[in-house]
Protein: DNA-directed RNA polymerase subunit
Amino acid sequence: MGPSMLSEVEKTLILPIPVNNLDNDRKVLASYIANRLMKQLSFTKACEDGYFLAVTKLIRIGRGENNKFCPHFVNFPVSCYCRTFKPADGEIMTGIVHKINNMGVFLKSGPMNIVYLAARFMPNYSYVPGENPVYMREDLSKIEIGVVVRYMVFAVRWIEDKWREFRVLATIDDDGLGPVALNGLDELDL
Structure:
């Protein structure tokens, strides 16, 4: 099996702090920095190291520097350890189908909004068009919107666009993969 999907990474970020949140010595409370750090990481969402899940340790708050572009802020370099999630080839995961077309299905899985399961990676499933399109097998098992699918990560690509996320190509061409029966559960939030 490949590397773990969860890891600890060290990150250094520049946090702009409003001048009115500084004391007379131009110092700022660590709790305020930690709060701003969490907000910035949730906005950033992900980096090449993976999706940000948590800040596990605040390492260092550097000396604040005047912001050249906005005098109402002081920029503080902040170093921390973050727990990240990065999908890896060969990993088995689950996701919920949220879109279907004749080329395949799109799943949401954890923090990932785009997991693509191409029709060619769904052996023995045929596309059935209509108002509520589905992929169906001869034994009548279906992949439709809202169904939980157990899949294997076939390939991963980091995309540095406005969404800043990993795009995952999935497959169910292996034993134990495909739609998951959730007896007694109406919905599952992954």
